[in-house]
# Entry
Amino acid sequence: MIDALRELLGPWYLYIKFVHVTFVMVWVFSTAHAYAYYVVPVFKAWRRNPEDEDVIELRDWVMERFDQGVIMEHVAYPIILITGPLLFIAGGWNSSSDWLMLKLAIVVLITLPIEILDYHLSHFGGAKANIRATGDKEAYEAGIHLHWYFLLYSSPVIMPAALLIVFLAITKFSF
Amino acid sequence: MRAKFSGNPARYRLASTVISAYSVLSVYAAFALIKWGLQDETWVFGWKPLLIVAVLIPLYARFCYRWMMRTDAQYGSGSSWQLVATKVKLPEFNPRKKKAPSQ
Ligand code: HEM
# Structure
């Protein structure tokens, strides 16, 4: 079965790799600018001026736009998770590659739980536009707080992790 | 009355410690088990990898703590951003809304 798949995918290896790497770029960088220059400064302003209604209005608007903006990142991620294993099979890779095993451990244990939470917060139950539509102001404020906790706790993890994954994949590091 | 955000330095310190311990230990354990279980390699349990793990946990926890404190405006004066009061209409994006049919 695996051998048949390898035969089938083999000639397409570089094309699959093109898709993999292109969507890695989207996953890693698509939110960088919005995060650094819109979300963080506005949330900092709110944290310094927690009662300022104008700042709060802007905070909510930026947060909801960011929920929309991460769609690009969240379309890219499953494509990476599909094309990665295809490359693994097509290229005949195995557990002897240190870089790949370390990369896989980071992908599965670090990026996957963070992305699952992020899907929930941005598009499903935690999406601020959805909560706003219910008219429950307390739940809306709680949803914003939860997302800010998520960004505070996940950003020092996901950014170095993504960089490390890309470093491992490109250098094919071996111990 | 709007609820106050409950984030504070003590919380961030605890979160950083938990996050660092989980990240380093889980990735190390998974990597070591793969190398040992599938490749019969035992160097992953030697003193060097274990020393790296032991040093990395507190260092990375400190890195995470400082990152959180900076991001949450607990450090620094924030003087590079000014609060300029202005009243504008904020556009709302509705991706599901269909275009109105043309006449
Ligand atoms: C967050 C997830 C991932 C990121 C950021 C990522 C990143 C990358 C990058 C940047 C490359 C290009 C390396 C190069 O051209 O030299 C690559 C290649 C590769 N990735 Fe991923 N990847 C991810 C997930 C996965 C997964 C889940 C697998 C599954 C096994 C995988 C398997 C591979 C393989 C086999 C290659 C081919 C290496 C080569 O031929 O050079 N990746 N990845």
User: Anything to note?
Assistant: Chain B is about 55% helix and 0% strand. The two ends of chain B are 48 Å apart (CA to CA).
